[in-house]
Structures are given as structure tokens and as C-alpha cells.
Design a protein that fits this description.
single chain, 690 residues, alpha/beta, UDP-N-acetylmuramoyl-L-alanine:D-glutamate ligase, Indigoidine synthase fold, 13-stranded mixed beta sheet, 11-stranded mixed beta sheet, 28 strands
């Protein structure tokens, strides 16, 4: 039985962050992000609640100036009349500094403040949300919140800590204020999975005004590059938690630390006796400590914030440099022609819910023990994701609803060029739910994919210029047939021909499942929507396996009539590997489009799958997409057939062991066939097709 076949188109580009009705990005920040230059996010509660006027305004301006002096772009975050601003103008900074009714805005407060059109300063948690939404990986603040003293009874724990546990932004701070329970704060950060490292020569964890708290960080980074390396690793792993870089206050300003600590103890006692609780505690104590120390605490506060801004900017610059070097290193393996044309992918985006049972069989009609995780898939998205991680960064054309699922998708896909993805009011983002058994077999799948029908010919026609300049076009076969006809007609209309013909991959085309294999070929071997299909095309076909011998025989028999119209056919066989069918050339199947020849000798090569233990299989939804994407990346790099298929098999194995359809740790190095000894690779079985 034929299960499915599909299509792709790809072009190189960059991701963009677009303003919407709530989030507004300052032009200087947008431009820096678009040009991949370092940006540093800054909070604004220090402006609205941390210091009196005019010290708050002068400090904010000084901090931004320090960031610019380190060749980074400052992005102070604040809420003004219900809009979350990422980057503030001079007038907006002045407004917040003088705003007497400003709200202290944490994650909890954001919905209300926005809905009521209020203004306020963002705390660490709210600033992290905005920074992550804009694609800014480094955020500088004074000190983070934590577990309050007696927090084991009051449960007064700052939202900063939980935000660090779920938002992948690196926070550079002077540790935790000593008015808090530092030991329990570090324990809570560990529970949240937050990587904590002290910046400098020791692991001593700083206590804001003092470089010593009596506690140690788990790790230590000695310079900006080491800190950037840590952040880059956290982002690459896709663990979706933040990193805390604790920077001790400069020694020349720490001398007054003991005097300030005594004032803090007095202020804490006064707050308790006056019944001050919750979010009012910190502002009261800071103001009271400033009075008791006759301004010395304010001077130390400003000094450590200045130092944090300098260190954080240096880290952001080092991180930007590392990421640029990695991209250029990946690009060096591509053919020179890639930089002149590119790749485009047209297809669907899904929010996936993967439920894995803890038993080998699932009992329907009752609750089965297992685990459930959320990820982001869709055939088109998966292919574009895979190619992006392998250095080709295609333009991705798709559609989502204007809903919370869409916001989550855009946040997760910030490493991709999603400038071709439209949000549609009144529609729902596609969702897919898969239930798999303990050994990784699919038990049941349900999908709401209606939005894919909105990837129309009219919408795709806006990208005609990109299509014409592509060297690879990939169409997800789940999009409307009229859209597929349009893309293929563009190729025919402009006479895309000869040795330089761009590859077109039709991928994930659904054949009617009630058909027998023979009927499927007779009825859909050349369906009407593909009536103009040129013969030089790369296709992918799925066949449901029975025994390996039967499947190979069936796939070879099916391929013969289909190859009358296609250049190459790739058949995935699950645990039995992959079968590549097409024209014989140089002892193997030729994957690269060539001018049509009157006679072709057809052959097939079967490649066994790489071993994956059943208990290691976490997600079966993206293995085929990973294989296809990596195989295409190999073709774009000019690799031979063996190398291309091996790249695909390595990517598929990584996908199976990841909770995500495309493994976040996928890189060009991880799918390099040469990293496995040649004699360790299973040998392909070669056969002729009559």
C-alpha cells in the first residue's frame, strides 16, 4: 500500500521579528537583529521602582551608553499605554522615569496591564518574555529576585526564578539580593533546571552589594567567550531554560558592603514589623537602605549595574561572533552557487502533542500510563527546520492561525526564515496528536490541518521572485493541488531547463489508503494535479512494510511505472531503512537532475537503517522528514549518493531519540558520514529495475 508522497521548495534568507498589536520593537533594535549584530535587553523596574528621580533616568541613560560603547545595541523593555516596547526612544525613557502611577510588571501582571492600556516597568520575568519574543538571547539586570526569607512558610518566591526555568534567555546579574534567602534561591534554581555560573576567577556566588554570599555557584566562566560558549550550548540543546551569569560587584565598590548589610538587616526588620509583604518588600527595603547608608547603597547599586552592563555587552558580542562563525563555517561546505540562488520550502506547520505509552500495547477505551510532550512539526516546517540547522536556511512559506499556538511556533522557529509565514485571523494553527507505544510504534494519530488549505496559489504568488531564483523547490504535498499546479507552471512558463534545472521535491503526497498498491499506481501514479510534471524531479514515497523481501519487491515493482515520469524515487521503510530508485550512473542511483535521455538504465539501492534501541525512541513524527531534509542538504553540497543517504540516516536516528521532530542538536557535523568508519556502515544492496 502506498502511504504517502510529498513536495518542497527552498530559498536562503533570514528570520525577522515583526511588530504586532502588543509588542513594539524599536527600529534600532529591529535593524540590529536583522543584521545579526549583538543586542542587550535591559529591564525597566530599576527606572520605575528601583531609584528615585532623576537618578533613575541618568542611570538608565548611562547603562544604555555603556552597552553602545561595547558595540552592542541596548533594548530597554517597558510597557507604555498597553504596548510592550523592546527598545525605548529618548522620550519614552523620560516618560517612564517620570511616570508616578507606573505598575511593576511581572509575568503575572502583563495581561492586565496590556488589557487596561497601563504603563509600567518590566521585572526580570517580563523582560525575559519580551527579549525571547524578539530573539534577544542576553539580558542584563542588577539582581534577580529569589526565595524570600521564611519562604518555606510564606511561599513568597519571585517569578524571576520560574521564568529562568522556562525561557531560554541568559540573564547577567550581580547574583541575588542579600535580603533574600540565597541558599534556598540556589536550590530552587537547581529544581528549575537553570544553569548558574559565576563570572570571574572563583565559584563564589555574589550577594548583590557583596561579592561573597557564603554560597557557591555550580559552575564558573572566566571571560566573555567562555560565557558565550555556555549560552550557545544552552540554546543549541533546546532545553528551553535560561542561564544565570552571576557577576560580583567590582572590588573598589564592595568595601561598603558590610555597612550596607547591617542597614539591610535593619530595613528587613522594619518591613516585617510594618506588615509590608509581596512585591512591595523590595522597593521599600532598597529605599530604606539608601536612607540608612546616606546614599552609599545607591552608589554601589549604580556601580554594579554599570559593571553588569559592560560584562553583559561583552558576552553578547562574543556570542554574536560565535554564532556568525558557526554560520559561515556551515556555509563554507555549500556550493558557491547557493549564495546566488537558494532554496524555498512551501508547506504546513503543526503544533504536535506526542503521547508515549509505557506499555508495548495500548488499550483503547481506558487511560493508559505514559507521558505527553509538546513539540512543533508539520512536514514543511520540519524540512525547513532541518535544512536551516544544516546551513541552508530556506525561505519557508506557510500559514498559521492568529492564536496562542502561532505565537509559540514563531518563538520556537526563530532560527528559521519565517518571513513567508502568514497569520490568519479566524483560523486555527494546525495541531497533531500522536499516540505511540513504548517501543515507538504509532498507535493512533489525529490532526486538525484545515489551515494548510489556506496556503493558496494567490498567497504563494507573492514569492514568485524567490521561486525563480531557487536551486531547490520543495512542496509539502498536503497543500492545495492548485498551489502545486501554480508552482510547477512557473517552472514550465519560464522554461527552467537543462543542466541547471532546479530540483523539485514532491514530498508527503497522501494516496488514498483503501487502494491496493496496484490500484494506487494506476489511479494516482500520475494524478491530474501533476499533469505538467517534468521528469527531472526528486520524489519521496512511503510504503507500509510487511516483510523486508516483500516490501523491496513491491517498492521496486511500483517504482517502474512511476519512474516513467520522475527522475528519482526515495522509499522509506521504517526500521528496514531506505530504498533509492532511479537512473543508474557511475555504479549507483543518480540523485541529481540531468537532461532527459531517451533511454535510461534504472536501478535501486537498499540502505539498512541505523540501530535505535526501542527505549531510546521518543518521537516518530519527524524521522522521515529528517532523513529527507538531510538527504537534500547532501545533494546541495554536491555529495555522492552514498553520502547523501547516510546523512539522512544519521539525521533520522537523531530525530527518533529527540522529543522534537527535528533534533535541536542537529548540525552539519552531527550528520557527517565520515565521522563513522566506512567499514561500520551497513552496505547497500544494489538491484536492477527491468
Amino acid at each position: 500500500m502506498i502511504k504517502r508522497v510529498s513536495t518542497l521548495i527552498i530559498r536562503r534568507g533570514r528570520s525577522t521579528f515583526q511588530n504586532d498589536s502588543i509588542f513594539q520593537v524599536h527600529p534600532s533594535v529591529s535593524q540590529a537583529l536583522a543584521e545579526n549584530r549583538p543586542v542587550v535587553a535591559l529591564e525597566s523596574t530599576i527606572i520605575t521602582h528601583g531609584m528615585p528621580y532623576p537618578h533613575n533616568l541618568s542611570t538608565a541613560r548611562e547603562v544604555e551608553a555603556i552597552v553602545r560603547a561595547q558595540d552592542a545595541t541596548p533594548a530597554t523593555v517597558g510597557v507604555i499605554e498597553g504596548k510592550v516596547h523592546v527598545g525605548l526612544s529618548v522620550e519614552e525613557l523620560d516618560f517612564l522615569a517620570c511616570c508616578e502611577d507606573a505598575v511593576k510588571v511581572s509575568r503575572r501582571d502583563l495581561p492586565f496591564v496590556v488589557s487596561q492600556g497601563l504603563s509600567g516597568g518590566t521585572t526580570v520575568s517580563a523582560t525575559m518574555i519580551a527579549a525571547h519574543r524578539a530573539g534577544i538571547p542576553v539580558f542584563v539586570t542588577g539582581g534577580i529576585g529569589g526565595v524570600h526569607r521564611d519562604g518555606e512558610n510564606s511561599l513568597d518566591i519571585s517569578a524571576d526564578l520560574t521564568e529562568l526555568g522556562r525561557t531560554p534567555v541568559a540573564v547577567v546579574s550581580a547574583g541575588v539580593k542579600s535580603i533574600l534567602d540565597i541558599g534556598r534561591t540556589l536550590e530552587f534554581l537547581e529544581t528549575q533546571g537553570v544553569c548558574v555560573a559565576t563570572y570571574g576567577t572563583s565559584k563564589d556566588f555574589p550577594a548583590f552589594f557583596s561579592p561573597l554570599s557564603g554560597f557557591s555557584s555550580p559552575y564558573q566562566v572566566c571571560n566573555p567567550d567562555k560565557a558565550a560558549q555556555l549560552i550557545e550550548s544552552a540554546l543549541s540543546l533546546g532545553v528551553h531554560s535560561g542561564v544565570l551569569i552571576a557577576v560580583p560587584i567590582p572590588k573598589e565598590h564592595a568595601a561598603a558592603g558590610q555597612h550596607i548589610e547591617l542597614a539591610i538587616q535593619t530595613a528587613v526588620a522594619e518591613a516585617s514589623s510594618q506588615g509590608i509583604t509581596g512585591k512591595d518588600v523590595t522597593p521599600y527595603i532598597l529605599q530604606r537602605v539608601n536612607e540608612l547608608t546616606q546614599g552609599k547603597s545607591l552608589e554601589a547599586n549604580v556601580a554594579l549595574i554599570h559593571n553588569n552592563a559592560k560584562v553583559g555587552s561583552q558576552i553578547a558580542c562574543a556570542l554574536s561572533k560565535r554564532m556568525k562563525n558557526r554560520k559561515s563555517s556551515g556555509a563554507s561546505h555549500r556550493p558557491a552557487k547557493q549564495s546566488e540562488s537558494g532554496v524555498v520550502v512551501i508547506g504546513g506547520i503543526n503544533v504536535d502533542f506526542i503521547a508515549k505509552g509505557k506499555t508495548t500495547t495500548l488499550q483503547f477505551g481506558q487511560t493508559n500510563p505514559g507521558s505527553v510532550c509538546q513539540s512543533y512539526g508539520g512536514v514543511g516546517r520540519n524540512i525547513a527546520d532541518c535544512l536551516s540547522r544544516l546551513g541552508h536556511r530556506p525561505v519557508f512559506i506557510s500559514a498559521t492561525g492568529a492564536d496562542s499556538h502561532s505565537d509559540a511556533v514563531f518563538s520556537y522557529c526563530k532560527h528559521m526564515d519565517v518571513s513567508g509565514v502568514t497569520k490568519l485571523e479566524g483560523h486555527s494553527t494546525a495541531t497533531y496528536c500522536a499516540v505511540i507505544t513504548e517501543n515507538g510504534e504509532l498507535g493512533l494519530g489525529l490532526g486538525d490541518m484545515d489551515i494548510h488549505q489556506q496556503i493558496t496559489e494567490k498567497y504563494v504568488s507573492q514569492f514568485e521572485k524567490q521561486l525563480l531564483s531557487s536551486i531547490l523547490v520543495c512542496l509539502d504535498g498536503n497543500i492545495p493541488a492548485s498551489t502545486i499546479r501554480y508552482v510547477l507552471s512557473i517552472a514550465k512558463q519560464h522554461n527552467i531547463n537543462g543542466e541547471d534545472v532546479p530540483m523539485t521535491c514532491i514530498y508527503d503526497w497522501i494516496a488514498a489508503s483503501p487502494y491496493t498498491p496496484v490500484q494506487a499506481v494506476e489511479d494516482t501514479g500520475r494524478p491530474s494535479c501533476y499533469s505538467h510534471l517534468p521528469s527531472r524531479r526528486l520524489y519521496k514515497l512511503y510504503v507500509l512494510p510487511n516483510s523486508l523481501e516483500q516490501v523491496l519487491s513491491l517498492a521496486v515493482a511500483l517504482s517502474r511505472p512511476i519512474l516513467e515520469h520522475l527522475h528519482c524515487l526515495v522509499v522509506t521503510l521504517g526500521e528496514n531503512g531506505v530504498l533509492v530508485c532511479g537512473e543508474h550512473h557511475a555504479g549507483n542511483v543518480n540523485l541529481k537532475p540531468r537532461k532527459q535521455r531517451k533511454t535510461r538504465k534504472l536501478c535501486a539501492a537498499h540502505y539498512p537503517a541505523l540501530n535505535v534501541a526501542a527505549h531510546e525512541t521518543m518521537n516518530v513524527s519527524g524521522a522521515g522528514d529528517s532523513l529527507a531534509g538531510a538527504l537534500m542538504a547532501g545533494i546541495l553540497q554536491g555529495r555522492d549518493t552514498d553520502a547523501c543517504v547516510r546523512m539522512g540516516l544519521l539525521a533520522a536516528r537523531m530525530s527518533l531519540a529527540s522529543p522534537h521532530p527535528i533534533a535541536p542538536v542537529l548540525t552539519t557535523e552531527s550528520v557527517e558520514p565520515d565521522r563513522i568508519e566506512n567499514h561500520s556502515w551497513p552496505k547497500p544492496t544494489f538491484m536492477w529495475i527491468d
